Amino acid sequence: MTDTFTAPTVQVRVDHRSAVHLAAEAARGVARECELPGALPDQAAVIASELATNLDKHASDGTLYVQPLPLGHGVEILAADRGPGMHDPERCLTDGYTTSGTLGVGLGAVKRMATHFHMRSADGTHPGTWACAQLTATGEQRPRWQGVGTVCLPAEGEEGCGDARAIVDTDSARTAVVLDGLGHGRPAAEAAQAALRTFHADPDRPLPEVLTRMNRALRHTRGAAVGVLRLYLERADYCGVGNIRALALTHDRVRHRLTGQPGIVGWGMPTPRVHDFPLPQGGTAVLHSDGIDARWSLDPPPSLLRLPPPLLSAALAHGHRRVRDDATVLAARSPLRLP
């Protein structure tokens, strides 16, 4: 079994030149918490600095999201904005290309330093640019962390985050969970973390048993909404209680929308039921709490649906978040092969 503790995402709004330094320090700190060896924390700081500088110079409403990799051992730095986009993203990654009179080495340096880097820029109907730089230690197996993206943010003004999420690969499947403790702040966070610990204790159990065990663990807390998703090759199972939404996306449309059964895990939870749905190869499954406005899925542009999971998560969190609520989104594809 492979898994990583998923702490809340560190958010840095790039609304001033001084945010570049904040972004670098955030990335260095997360890399150190991930125990990346040698010069890798400093490399993470450089990557974040370059991405933040690019947002400061060229974008509007730019934000960096920094966190441990959802799977595997490393750090992930996401950038999102609502700027005019890039006419030719590949050219922008070429050393020497510039639109602002600088040396034009920023994005090219990010691509060289990161273990994996990808970037997409949308058209005028859905403006914005999204980038993801992932940095791992030498020898980290890429299949453990590819095809997964997530962002988890507290409500504005709250120190603790009442949402939590995790994703685990076992011998039989890939299992993801999104948790939303009732309310905000520390009591909500305590409920979410109690449910998360229960999930990690045995994530390979049948999904109704996972929720039943959480229900027992949360009896002396505020309780939580829970959604659990299990991905197999070309299909998925969903089991949820409360307002955690599950969706299946392909490159052209949203194919399935599911919401958890009414109730609260920890307080009179109903008997959990499993819903299965097809997930074609290359399709993406999404789980999100109600801190992400569900209206995004009513008529999403194709450019959004085609984003890989890390960029999709950043785009949904950046463009459709309700700032007065904890907000979590997790996007994943079925592994091409099981671990």
Can you give me a brief rundown of this structure?
This protein has helices at residues 19-33, 40-58, 89-92, 106-113, 185-201, 207-217, 302-305, 309-320; strands at residues 2-3, 10-14, 62-68, 74-80, 116-121, 129-136, 148-153, 163-169, 174-181, 224-232, 235-241, 245-249, 254-259, 275-278, 284-288, 327-332. By secondary structure, it is α+β, with helices and mostly antiparallel strands. It has 2 domains: 7-141, Heat Shock Protein 90 (2-Layer Sandwich); 148-332, 4-Layer Sandwich (Phosphatase 2c, domain 1), CATH 3.60.40.10.
Description:
The protein has 8 helices and 16 strands. It has a 6-stranded antiparallel β-sheet with strand order 1-8-9-10-11-14. Strands 2-3-4-6-5 form a 5-stranded antiparallel β-sheet, sandwiched between helices. Helix 1 packs antiparallel against helix 2, helix 2 (40-58) runs antiparallel to helix 4 (106-113) and helix 5 (185-201) packs across helix 6 (207-217). It has 2 domains: 7-141, 2-Layer Sandwich (Heat Shock Protein 90); 148-332, PPM-type phosphatase domain (Phosphatase 2c, domain 1, 4-Layer Sandwich), CATH 3.60.40.10. The longest helix is centred in the N-terminal third of the chain and has 19 residues, at 40-58. 51% of the residues are buried. It is an alpha+beta fold and 339 residues long.
List its traits.
five-stranded antiparallel β-sheet; 339 residues; 2 domains; single chain; Heat Shock Protein 90; globular; 16 strands; six-stranded antiparallel β-sheet; alpha+beta; Phosphatase 2c, domain 1; 8 helices; 29% strand
